[in-house]
Amino acid sequence: MNLNAWRLYASYYRGKELYLAASVLLAAGQGLFILPIAFFVRYAFDTLIPTRNIGGLFAIGGGILVLTLLNNGINVLSRYLTLDVTKRAVAALRQDLLEKCYALSRHFHTRADRGDLHAQLVYDTERVDGMSSGIMTQLLPALCTSLALLFVLLYLNPLLFLLIATVMPVLVIAGRRMGILLRDNTREFHHAFMHFSKGILFMLGAMDLTRVQAAEKVEQNAQRERIEHLRRTSKRKLWLETADSALHSTIVTIWSVLILIVGGWAVVQNTMTIGDLLSYYVAVSLMSVQLRGALGALPYTIEGNASLNKLYEFLRLQDPIPYQGTRTIDLQGNISLNDVWFNYDAVQVLRGVNLALRPGSTTAIVGANGAGKSTITYLMLGFYRPMRGIVTADTMLYDELSMTALRSRIGVVMQDPILFPGTIRENITYGSPNSTEAEIARASQLATAHEFIERLSQKYETEIGDEGVLLSGGQRQRIALARALLRQPRLLILDEPTNHLDLNAISTLMQNLRGLNPRPAILMISHDPQVAEQADEVYELRDGQLTPLLRMDAYARAQLGAEKLHG
């Protein structure tokens, strides 16, 4: 057991101690209503039945019924209080995990296994939730009631209690050994389940790739292996849980048989009445019910403990976002890179780059694929920090600025825009949920998207499918443009716009943008030299260095000449 992980878990219950104490007291209070039942049974068999007191039997029966109803009512109230506390605690844990995801750098997220992250945020938190409910609504109440019943058993017959005390260590040892087996197998089951989940996510996301590559059989075989592994580990886990339950049931049965034999012998020897024996059996039966409840919570506790350890390790990760500033500015469009150097691990990408974007200007960066053009975008967005050099916005250092506030004034359209299942409207207004109909239509018109949207039967309410699969590449690009323009950015970054838009569409877009007041600074990044014809300033990125080009036509001719030479 990782004590640090459990300290983290306990921290989510701070401020809720009164609720927990109330639920525990109520759980303990249940014992107060259960305990008299054993004494009522003894009184009925030793006094009322021998004297044929039928009225007294009715009274005893009514008393047992009232006590049972009170016990059940307290149990319901206790569980309500406990569930309210545990669900709030797990919700707070999930919120912290989400915040941790946003607090980690892009460097982490580009290297992390999304399937693992998905499993931790969804399945592991659900297991912790199950563990919390099991501990608070089953384990603790059962232990409190069992403790009270032990005192009753000791009071009723010390000799029989001693017999129980000799059996208890066997129960504990057996439970511990079985718990180790369950823990190890649960870990293997979680591993198998995670691989199965990741495989399904890949299968659904790569359906077109699988069909294009005629790899259906290969993919089915891979998934079949994961399913088979999950089947084996799941069967073993459930079998061990069943064996654990059977083992404890057997021990309790042996315990009951010993009580019957020893108690029966005591009755024969007249050292114990039948009422004493029956009341003892009632108390033992009640305790067996409580122990089964406690044992029923153990599998959830074992699973939850394994998941809690993983979540604790995730929350301890140290790979923070590059900038922690809090200052907000009304960005005018001035973004500068000053003597910026940047590496991806040991690979140098940028060397002494200087670049200044100005309000209303259009700047183009051209260069081969993989030259590092998109890295400049990530630096301007504050996703990465330069190894050397500084980045400023309106002359303010990025270290001082809130990146969230800064990015709210920057519109970005990546070469492969991210769209999600939903309607066109939902995708355009993502991040700007309070936009009016007029603002949405205006942004779509600027992005040259409004015309094709209006031709659709559902117009802006048209469902686009997962990642916009129901739309063409150009339509997806236009929707992403509309989303970026809806926030009225002071800087617009277009990364490889010719991937899905032809030059005429880009020319129309640029004409629309030139008519804006104020006109945003525009940065176009492309491997296509013809894109630069729309720019006021053109730079070439080669060998990690940014070189200004004075005459784009000469650059284009040089590129075409090089292509012919190598062709």
CATH H-level superfamily title of the largest domain: ABC transporter type 1, transmembrane domain
**Rounded average pLDDT:** 84
Radius of gyration: 35 Å
Low-pLDDT ranges: 551-567
How much of the polypeptide forms β-strand, as a percent range? 5-15%
Report the principal-axis shape.
elongated
**SSE string:** HHHHHHHHHEEEHEEHEHHHHEHEEEH
Tell me the major beta sheet: 6 strands, mixed
Largest beta sheet: strand ordering? 6-7-8-3-9-10
Helix content: 55-70%
Descriptive notes:
The protein is α/β, with parallel strands linked by helices and 567 residues long. The protein folds into two domains: 3-179 and 246-315, Up-down Bundle (ABC transporter transmembrane region fold); 335-566, Rossmann fold. It is built from 17 helices and ten strands. The chain has helices at residues 3-11, 17-48, 54-103, 106-111, 114-156, 158-205, 207-212, 216-268, 274-315, 373-380, 403-407, 424-428, 437-446, 450-455, 473-486, 503-514, 552-566; strands at 335-344, 347-357, 362-366, 388-393, 396-397, 410-413, 491-495, 521-526, 537-542, 545-549. A six-stranded mixed beta sheet has the order 6-7-8-3-9-10, with helices on both faces. The protein has a four-stranded antiparallel beta sheet with strand order 2-1-4-5, with helices on one face. Helix 2 runs parallel beside helix 5 (114-156) and helix 8 (216-268) runs antiparallel to helix 9 (274-315). It is elongated, with a radius of gyration of 35 Å. It starts with a helix and ends with a helix. The model is unreliable at 551-567 (pLDDT under 50).
